[in-house]
Amino acid sequence: MMTDLEVAGPIGVFDSGIGGLSVLKHIRRLLPAESLLYVADTGHLPYGSKPPDVVLRRSVAISRFLVERGAKAIVVACNTATAVAVAELRQQFALPVIGVEPGLKPGISRSRGGVVGVLATEGTLGSEKFRRLVSAHGQQRQVIVQPCPGWVEQVESCTFDSAGARELIASIITPLLRQGVDTLVLGCTHYPYLRPLIQELAGPEVEIVDTGPAIARELQRRLDLLGLLTDSAVAGDERFWVSGDARSAGWQFARLWRPGCLLEPLPDSVK
Ligand code: DGL
Prior knowledge:
Blueprint lengths: L10 E5 L5 H10 L5 E5 L11 H17 L4 E4 L2 H14 L4 E2 L5 H7 L4 E6 L1 H4 L2 H10 L5 E5 L3 H6 L6 H16 L2 E6 L8 H8 L4 E3 L2 H14 L12 E5 L3 H11 L6 E3 L6
Parallel strand pairs: 1-2, 1-3, 2-9, 3-4, 5-6, 5-7, 7-8, 9-10
D-glutamic acid binds next to α3.
């Protein structure tokens, strides 16, 4: 079924915005020889408060775009898009599709007897996939699910430690701590950028779970199984597309990826 996939082909990654770069960073570190394609669907951000059918349509259109550019695997670097679209993407496209989901299982195993808080978008927390995750793993501990309105936009503004950011994070974290939360699961790929602030406000005793490194390892495992890992000493290249304004996204990528990183506009047919 997957004989057309090329070992030298790139890995396609997408998110609603720059959040997926928190996953891409771990992929780049683990798989330096792989070429990477990244789509930030900034023209349709945020996904978390959009109806599932909109997120599904965007996920299919972007995945098709990545497949047309030769992707040998797709990483849905977005919890919200994974929750509503990963099953459909696996049906439509004959290549490995790696999704991300809140790390509830590792969160429960790291909790020292307290309550586990899952921080994610409304779209993720309201999905059937997330309900199944909680009923599979959430029995051994009390789990509090917590939407975080404004956090995605805070990350997109690339201000991670302003007075406004502190107030926004504290307004969610403080009530959770009062309820005995000792472990916080970052169930949105934007949130790892707020991790230092979350840790500072929650205190050093609180465990924070980010699944970014595990996603990169899972991608490596799947590519290896299929004989699709690139074996080369040459660093893989990278291409980036955005569906919103490419110029205004430039400084975000310069800050979170690297200065001078070239952003291309997504073709109109995919916007
Ligand atoms: N970064 C995404 C996620 O992991 C989407 C955030 C959004 O656009 O609402 O859920």
